Amino acid sequence: MSLSLLQPSLFMSKTRIPAQMIIGSWFFLTAMAIYFSLWVAPLDLQQGGNSRILYVHVPVAWMSIVVYIATAINSFLFLLTKHPLFLRGTGIEIGAFFTLLTLVTGGFWGRPMWGTFWVWDARGTSVFILFLIYLGALCFQKLSVELASIFICVGLIDIPIIKFSVNWWNTLHQPGSISRFGTSIHLSMLIPILSNFANFLFFTSFLFVLETRLLILSFLESSWTERVGVDKYCIIPSPGGSGRTKD
Fold first, then answer.
1. What are the UniProt keywords, alphabetically (predicted)?
2. 171 falls in which pLDDT band (50, 70, 90)?
3. Contact 19/209 with Cβ under 8 angstroms?
């Protein structure tokens, strides 16, 4: 698949957004997420202020899965096309960060609620395995991009395990509070969760777009450099039949 088939010019034109707008949007989403989390959402009757940790824990847990799925799609496309545009490692690093943050915030929430920072239940263990998969992909990436891509695609099996672990096994984690039939979370507590998720999703999407733009620019620059090199050393026929080198 050639770069032209991916329409880089269209992508570059559609993603040419002023930096002030991006920074302003990110600051707005961050301010709204903090406002809803600290001042709008009420304290939980049983958990007290400890419940505010969930306004970060739940969104970063969602992000760890969303980023992994996006990275797996990217890895599959690279294996399918071998196109260098899909040689992106940012998703693995970002996903590892969100997964680590999920484990850390879960530990801080669990300490006063369960009496311990860590419990080897199905949900926690499957998320920890996801973190190991991210780390493994980072290590494999230094050896072979193809190997890292295959590893990421195989690791997709952990995603449904994370999702349905609370239904398949008896765990300390409660069953899913959000489904296609609705949610059991009160609106005043759901809004800060969604606000933080939107904030994380916006910033992560920006990093993905920025990395893609930089890759396209590097391809265009290398192509331009190759053309200049060919033009510089090409042979130009002279009227007498002999040739001379253009330099």
1. Cytochrome c-type biogenesis, Membrane, Mitochondrion, Transmembrane, Transmembrane helix
2. confident
3. no
